[in-house]
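Researcher: I'd like a candidate sequence for this fold, 171 residues long. If you have to choose between options at a position, lean toward the conservative one.
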């Protein structure tokens, strides 16, 4: 029975990962088409795309056995059996990996955005937010159970302008 449950969880996680990848591909494709990138801009967009995908890959459920909400919901990979200090270390390691991935994204977005004209920047600020948020934020992790509205960017949001991103819901 336990083995079947694990097989079910593994299959479900694989399906969820595949769905996220498809959504990410769609959002990045829409962004690319909407921006009408020049060949030079396409070259600068590749590191942005890779960084967004890297953030998506660094999601808690992908590497930490289903750990969500900072360890509040430990998955079936033994996370529930960890000592508190081990769980905290795991969380710290995860946060370091996410911080590194966010830094890579910030490094890639700067030169790319600088290469855009004013119309492209306006489109990137609106359309790009969703792709960036899916990659950067744990839409299916942090938001399970009514956590965060649209991620953790808070305040003025990632691209500038306040659109409600980062507000807590149901609080």
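Model: Candidate sequence:
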């Amino acid at each position: 029975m336990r083995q079947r449950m694990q097989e079910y969880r593994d299959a479900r996680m694989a399906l969820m990962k595949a769905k996220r990848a498809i959504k990410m591909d769609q959002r990045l494709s829409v962004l690319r088409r909407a921006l009408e990138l020049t060949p030079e801009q396409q070259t600068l967009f590749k590191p942005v795309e890779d960084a967004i995908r890297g953030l998506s890959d660094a999601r808690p459920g992908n590497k930490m056995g289903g750990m969500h909400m900072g360890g509040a919901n430990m998955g079936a990979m033994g996370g529930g059996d960890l000592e508190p200090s081990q769980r905290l270390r795991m969380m710290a390691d995860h946060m370091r990996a996410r911080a590194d991935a966010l830094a890579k994204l910030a490094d890639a977005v700067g030169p790319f955005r600088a290469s855009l004209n004013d119309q492209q920047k306006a489109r990137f600020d609106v359309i790009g937010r969703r792709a960036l948020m899916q990659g950067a934020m744990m839409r299916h992790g942090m938001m399970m159970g009514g956590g965060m509205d649209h991620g953790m960017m808070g305040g003025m949001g990632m691209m500038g302008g306040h659109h409600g991103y980062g507000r807590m819901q149901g609080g």
